[in-house]
Amino acid sequence: xxxxxxxxxxxxxxxxxxxxxxxxxxxxxxxxxxxxxxxxxxxxxxxxxxxxxxxxxxxxxxxxxxxxxxxxxxxxxxxxxxxxxxxxxxxxxxxxxxxxxxxxxxxxxxxxxxxxxxxxxxxxxxxxxxxxxxxxxxxxxxxxxxxxxx
Length: 150
What we know:
- The chain is an alpha+beta fold.
- The protein has a domain at 7-89 and 130-147: Electron Transport, Fmn-binding Protein, Chain A (Pnp Oxidase, Chain A, Roll), CATH 2.30.110.
- 33% of the residues lie in helices and 33% in strands.
- The protein has helices spanning 7-15, 57-65, 97-119, 123-126, 143-147; strands spanning 20-24, 34-38, 48-53, 67-74, 80-92, 127-132, 136-141.
- Strand 4 and strand 5 (80-92) form a beta hairpin.
- The radius of gyration is 16 Å and the shape is globular.
- It starts with 6 loop residues before the first helix and ends with a helix.
- Keywords: Oxidoreductase.
- It holds the Pfam family Pyridox_ox_2.
């Protein structure tokens, strides 16, 4: 069995800089759950925050389900991942501009964020902000497993 990541460490890992893969139940006939890469923000003990287009299938499905999951991983050996799922606690419409700026700085850095925000300013009126309270955690840290055969 692959060891889980302890609580404090899993929260720090989720708070780290990763592209998340958002998952949400898809109610359309014959569809598997919708999975999409997203920028997100999280601080230990807080909520997961994502932004997406108001009229996107992703937003519609999140509203319908009232919950979503996000999975992040370390793609370098020894591999680790954290997956968290929970209820939506808020949908801010239009998108929260402070969250948008914080995510742009998080992913692009303070130098590139202003140009990105200027080039995509329409998203401030086209996007919504979802907040999710982590409820169920799934984690794995393959370092102990990898050490057993190296």
